[in-house]
Design goal:
Keywords: Lipoprotein, Membrane, Transmembrane, Transmembrane helix
Structural class: alpha/beta
CATH superfamily of the largest domain: von Willebrand factor, type A domain
Organism: Micromonospora lutea
Protein name: Lipoprotein
Distance between the termini: 74 Å
Strand content: 25-35%
Radius of gyration: 33 Å
CATH class of the largest domain: Alpha Beta
CATH topology of the largest domain: Rossmann fold
Number of domains: 4
Pfam families: DUF58
InterPro entries: DUF58
CATH architecture of the largest domain: 3-Layer(aba) Sandwich
Shape: elongated
Length: 436
């Protein structure tokens, strides 16, 4: 029953003083109200005759808005008067066009379209969890209710990474064209692999002259070069406990995903092959050939559901996977945290074996809290202790960086919002100096 039945009974109770027998009058009123409630319930549209479907977008980038429409078909012979509550997980940011407090009407055989606008606040999969339909009678005294958790039409919206780092791609592509020698900058990109011989023209670098070929041909010939292509790049994302630390407004894992997406897009334009692996104690995701045209969506879909695991990353497992899967020499980019405990005990013991076959680059996002503590003069004694702890952390990171450098590992240590462009710059530097 609804509040209307109670209000009707209360209104009738006001007339009890005029009855010769108030108790009999109360019984009569209760019977009348119950009769009206039963009649109203019988006239309400049966929920068993309703069919529910969904349609709309399956994926949206973080920060965007998707629309998913719920279609409610009234297959019964009675008009439908109902309140519909379509519930999603809170992080889906669902905003229904029709509020759940409003009564919707559908004639027999009519189909209602109830759209919901979703603006998610977190990356990953955001499912619809429950659908509740409350069908009222024409008097509004009673209702039939369907709490449709088992019967809720399944729908999951995949929230892709924001990928704000894509704004850095045009500038890095311009630098790549300079390296390729297809665009004139301050210096013409000479390339790093021998391409062909041609006749010397005024302005050529004399260091490019091939004297032996010139002696055989009786003319001055110079070597031409082309940039490295068809190199292999393996991007490894650490999804262990250190990836759950918030650096700024987002977890470290999100900054690593941004950097991996930008690096994959840039390396694909450079003609290199890119594989992506995410792991902690087990492999979480693996994408091969992420550089191919049209593969950005596949890579983003594979990385979107990744969440930090509160376990210590097994770098022996990662090294074993890399050595087993990738035998040709490759550039291994490890996106992790520069923590002496995690890397000193996990990565350094297996690093010599890994660095003997592959070129290794470690990229980490700095914690802005540490930078702020070391940049601001302390005003209170407790601030001085906090600043001292931050300086000690930086000293440990510097010692770890020096230990990695001794194994010929390139280290990129940058703030979270600058990690993606800094990693792209390091890749271009290695490519221009033929160190891939």
């Amino acid at each position: 029953m609804t509040w209307r039945a109670a209000a009707l009974l209360a209104a009738g109770a006001l007339t009890l003083p005029g009855w010769p027998a108030p108790f009999v009058g109360l019984v009569v009123m209760v019977c009348v109200v119950l009769l009206l409630v039963g009649l109203d319930l019988a006239l309400a549209a049966p929920l068993g005759a309703l069919t529910v479907e969904r349609a709309g977008e399956r994926a949206v980038r973080l920060g965007g808005t998707a629309t998913v429409t719920l279609y409610l078909r009234n297959a019964s012979g009675r008009p439908l008067r109902a309140r519909v509550r379509d519930a999603w997980v809170p992080s889906a940011g669902a905003r229904p066009e029709v509020p759940p407090t409003r009564v919707v009407h559908a004639a027999p055989g009519e189909v209602l379209a109830l759209p919901s606008h979703l603006t998610p606040t977190r990356r990953g999969d955001r499912p619809a969890v429950a659908l509740t339909i409350r069908s009222f009678g024409p008097l509004g005294l009673a209702f039939r209710q369907w709490d449709g958790r088992p019967g809720t039409p399944p729908w999951t919206l995949r929230v892709l990474p924001r990928f704000e780092a894509r704004r850095h791609l045009p500038e890095r592509l311009s630098r790549l064209r300079v390296i390729d020698g297809t665009q004139v900058g301050r210096g013409r990109g000479p390339g790093t692999e021998f391409d062909a011989l041609r006749e010397y023209v005024s302005g050529d670098d004399v260091r490019s002259i091939d004297w032996r070929a010139s002696a055989r041909r009786a003319e001055v010939l110079v070597r031409t070069w082309r940039p490295e292509r068809d190199r292999r790049l393996i991007c490894v994302l650490d999804t262990g406990r250190t990836s759950a630390v918030r650096v700024g407004d987002e977890p470290r894992l999100d900054a690593s995903i941004e950097a991996a997406l930008l690096l994959s897009a840039l390396a694909g334009r450079a003609g290199d092959r890119v594989d992506v692996l995410a792991a902690d104690v087990v492999p979480r995701a693996s994408v091969a050939g992420a550089e191919r045209p049209g593969q950005w969506s596949r890579l983003a879909h594979a990385l979107a559901p990744l969440q930090p695991a509160l376990v210590e990353t097994d770098f022996r497992l990662i090294a074993g996977e890399l050595l087993r899967r990738h035998r040709p020499r490759s550039l291994v980019v490890l996106l992790t945290a520069l923590e002496p405990g995690a890397l000193g005990e996990g990565l350094l013991p297996v690093l010599p074996r890994l660095a003997a076959r592959h070129r290794v680059l470690v990229a980490a996002a700095q914690d802005p809290v540490l930078v702020r503590l070391t940049a601001t003069p302390p005003r209170r004694p407790e601030d001085a202790y906090a600043a001292a702890a931050a300086w000690r952390t930086f000293d440990e990171r510097n010692r770890l960086t020096a230990a990695l450098t001794r194994h010929h590992v390139t280290v990129v240590d940058a703030p979270a919002d600058h990690l993606a462009p800094a990693l792209a710059d390091a890749y271009l530097t290695l490519k221009s100096t033929a160190q891939l």
